[in-house]
Amino acid sequence: MKKPIYVSNQGATLDTSRRNFLKLSGIGIAVAGLTLVGCDDDDFEYNDNKIFDLGSGDVGVLNYAYALEQLEADFYTKVVNNFYAGISNAEKEVLTDLYHHEVIHRDFFKAAITGATTNVLPTLEFQYPNVNFNDRNSVLATAKALEDTGVAAYNAAGKYITNPAYLVLAGKIVSVEARHASAIRDLINPLTAAFSGDDVVNPTTGLDVAKEPKDVVAAAGGFIKTPFTWKERGIN
To answer: Which InterPro entries match (predicted)?
Structure first.
């Protein structure tokens, strides 16, 4: 049975005192007052090895996005809980903004999926074997990789969404994620064109890179400890 999902950002703990383009104006538009159409309760399943499968159709895409947002939220939580040595106040501000946004994204997807079914992607565990959280270059390079991959993931997954409400949501969130990617790139190479480099924006078409789910999971797989599958998209 399909059930409506009502999601609000009321009570979110995002700090709105600072004025820059990463503030509540960007994320609030994506989540405030949104009503989604529920998914079928039986759209989720576990495979024979009791490993969670993301599901089919729009459900699979929502769970896929939720997995990625869990990863980004976990990463930035570790960053802001122990900032790297020598961090500037400007860098602290940007990274703290990104932390708040990714936590809101993660919690939004959990609320949305929970409102549709009891079979929700579990909380994933992550690992960062090659990341030195006390080193600026290591942290920012990892943030760059995660943000670039996140934008590319949303860009490719959009064509698998059939519900217009979900498509609008994905479009708003990927817009915020692209701002994150640009901000991180500007921290690494300030006052250059790196914020929209040719490696992420096609110089001919002006379009962002899009990566299929199999490629995204392969790229992010080193961070994800909890196994899951998405049989519909060939992720086994």
So the answer is: Ferritin-like_SF (IPR009078), TAT_signal_bac_arc (IPR019546)
